[in-house]
Design a protein that fits this description.
6-stranded mixed β-sheet, 8 strands, 59% helix, Rossmann fold
């Protein structure tokens, strides 16, 4: 992997998003850094940026690190993953989420992935606990099988297996980039070799032409010398 090929950036409030981010980084052999460390001058040289954030009331934690700098980053390979308690298969919610957080131009440039998260009421702030109580009651109605876990707010669905689709997509894109760089390098080497061969051929032609002119000059010199000697000989005869 070349330097600064891919970087994972995450905003994690209670740890679930951070787990996913570090697993992704392990799989891709790159670094994962908190969003607060993602200064533009640090991230702008990477080919691929993967942003991860938890879901909070229809927003994605830390996503402004991408959306607020989109003009500077839009030519890169961009991925976003979210971590929350809404089922990944709830297409209606995630369509709403993407539409709310990203412009149409952004949506066309970004690959999105949705991972299940975790909740532990003992770790929640007072305000989050109050907000999540209502959310968990709603989730319990949608998923009766896990209703008890939801209502107890002790629910951990975080699993490394969920990152597979993102990792596969990222690896495919990165490999395409490597293949393109290898092909471009091959073209450059071939062009350099052709230029070298052309230069050598031109030099050879020049040397041959120079030798021909040198031979012609020598022949002309000998002919002129012969004419002079002939004239002198003729003059001596007359005398």
């Amino acid at each position: 992997m070349k330097d600064k090929e891919v970087l994972v950036i995450y905003k994690s409030k209670y740890g679930a998003t951070e787990r996913y981010a570090k697993w992704i980084a392990e799989e891709l052999g790159c670094e994962a850094i908190p969003a607060k460390e993602a200064k533009l001058k640090r991230i702008r040289d990477y080919d691929m940026l993967i942003f991860g954030g938890g879901l909070y009331a229809g927003t994605i934690g830390g996503i402004s690190k991408l959306t607020g700098r989109f003009e500077d980053l839009k030519k890169k390979h961009l991925m976003v993953f979210t971590c929350g308690l809404t089922e990944p298969g709830d297409n209606g919610y995630y369509t709403y989420l993407i539409t709310r957080n990203f412009t149409e131009v952004m949506r066309k440039r970004i690959h999105f992935f949705f991972f299940p998260g975790a909740i532990d009421k003992d770790k929640l702030s007072w305000l989050d606990k109050k907000l999540m109580t209502a959310v968990m009651k709603s989730q319990a109605k949608k998923d009766p099988e896990h209703a008890e876990d939801y209502l107890a707010m002790k629910h951990d669905l975080v699993d490394r297996k969920y990152i597979g689709s993102l990792v596969e997509k990222a690896q495919g894109i990165l490999q395409e980039d490597r293949d393109k760089r290898a092909y471009q390098q091959q073209l450059r080497q071939e062009a350099l070799q052709r230029a070298q061969e052309e230069e050598e051929a031109a030099q050879k032609a020049f040397e041959e032409k120079k030798a021909r002119f040198a031979a012609m000059d020598q022949a002309e010199f000998e002919a002129r010398k012969a004419r002079i000697l002939a004239k002198e000989a003729e003059k001596e005869k007359k005398e």
